[in-house]
Amino acid sequence: MSIPPLHLGIVTETYPPEVNGVAQTVARILDEMSARGHTVSLYRPDQGRQEAQQAASISTLLLPGMPLPGYRGLRIGLPATTRLQRRWQQHPPDLIYVATEGLLGYSAVVAAQRCQIPIVSGFHTQFHRYSQHYGWGILAKPIYRYLRYLHNRTHCTLVPTEQLRQQLMGDFEHIEVLGRGVDTERFHPRHRRLALREQWGVSATARVVLYVGRLALEKNLPLALQAYDAMRQYDPTLRFVLVGDGPLRQTLAQARPDLIFTGVMRGHDLAEHYASADLFLFPSETETFGNVTLEALASGLAVVAFADAAAAQHLQDGVNGALAPLGDHQGFIEIGCRLAADPLLSRRLGIAGRQRSEQLSWSHIIDRFEQLADQSLRQQQRSTTSTTAATGRRSSCF
Predict the structure, then answer these.
(1) Which of 161, 15, 176, 169 is nearest to 99 (CA)?
(2) In the predicted model, is pLDDT for residue 73 greater than 70?
(3) d(C-alpha 124, C-alpha 126), whole Å
(4) What is the C-alpha to C-alpha distance for residues 118 and 112, in angstroms, rounded to an integer?
């Protein structure tokens, strides 16, 4: 669908070079919308020394932020209602997309409502499910109520899967599904590099188990280690490579010198790490989507995951991936062992996964985003027309 050019304001508390699925998704939406001729303004916390190089065509307002406790290198936004409202009085976007629900995201919702600018919000992270991993499970319900309150003040909430839409129905209003795509040129089996495998101490015929993501409590890494240890009983030559960083890295590296920790990888280096492995273990049970699942598929890896989020949406167990029921830890381990014992099955699933990824174009995702943006604009216009007819005037920011 093609819509007239619009001015889109994107509010986010995470953005590259920060490495996470939300940052990647927001950056992709920004780039694709800009490439289609839309004007895009970005509002985000100042990232300090690691500041990304932003295209000159993108207007960026950097706002105050602070480090997120326990997440080195990630900053969160501080309240900025007045500053955003002042900015939007002078240069109002046609539509605001609030990608994160922190203090900056909340400020954006308040400011946009005061300026009568339509708002679309993104539900990217299940913070209420994270709470159980950090010793503050008692806050799960209050966090969920806050998320519901914030999202229900927007015209619609975008979620990445139909499964999540079903989970939120009844509490959240106006939910729409906006999936995720994957760059199948960047992530491709042809990027496999023997020299990299040699650095890992792996022969050409041995197999590598890979994990990519945050090394953090909510990612359920102990289960991945249990699965790997069990898998080595069937294939003692297996090696486990973990790509990423986080609060658990030092502890894991000290406890498990047999594992290979690469740190954070980006761009072509990341693509080579994917393609140079053979099996992908993704034990997380707290994902809203899990972009790494699609990246592993595109790279030709056999993916072992729970039937949740992206894996549930795009994998068929035994066809193009291997799925365990959500919460079935023993089943997850047994699936890993089955692939360790059967290299041909592993290879077949990897090939089928690659074929599935080729259907997941970002172009179709942005078509859908444009459609939802147009719906929100039309809804706001109808609301404004109705208000004007009733009051005889149109209010502005106050």
Answers:
(1) 15
(2) no
(3) 7
(4) 7
The two tokens of residue 18 are 């920060």
Question: At 317, is the secondary structure helix, strand, or coil?
Answer: strand
**Count of beta carbons in the 10 Å neighbourhood of residue 309:** 26
**Residue 25 belongs to what H/E stretch?**
helix 21-35
Residue 237: predicted pLDDT: 95
Residue type, 303: V
> How many CB atoms are closer than 10 A to CB 170?
7
Tokens of 93: 């976007």
Helix, strand, or coil (residue 309): helix
Write down all domains in the chain, each with its CATH number in brackets.
Answer: 7-181+361-391 (3.40.50.2000), 189-357 (3.40.50.2000)
Q: Which pLDDT score, from 0 to 100, does residue 57 have?
A: 64
Bridge partner list, 66: 76
Query: What residues contact residue 362 under an 8 Å CB cut-off, 6+ apart?
Result: 28, 32, 181, 182, 183
Provide the pLDDT confidence category of residue 130 given band limits of 50, 70 and 90.
Answer: very low
Q: Under the phi-then-psi rule, with left for phi > 0, alpha for psi from -120 to 50, and beta for the rest, what region is 116? A: left
- State the sign of the Cα–Cα–Cα–Cα dihedral 362, 168, 291, 231: negative
Beta bridge partners of 387: none
- How many degrees, rounded to 5, is the angle at CA 244 between CA 239 and CA 249? 80
Q: List CB contacts of 257: < 8 A, sequence separation 6 or more.
A: none
123: tokens are 């539900």
SS3 percent helix, strand, coil of the chain, rounded to 5, is 45, 20, 35
Residue 165 in contact with residue 175, Cβ under 8 Å?
A: yes
The residue that leads in pLDDT, 32 or 382, is 32
More confident residue, 128 or 357: 357
Give 266-316 pLDDT, tens digit per residue: 999 999 999 999 999 999 998 889 999 999 999 999 999 999 999 999 999
* pLDDT higher than threshold 50 for residue 393: no
Residue 131 has pLDDT above 50, yes or no: no
Contact (Cβ atoms closer than 8 angstroms) between residue 49 and residue 142: no
Return d(Cα 202, Cα 197) in angstroms, integer. 5
pLDDT score at 141: 84
Mean pLDDT over all residues of the chain? 90
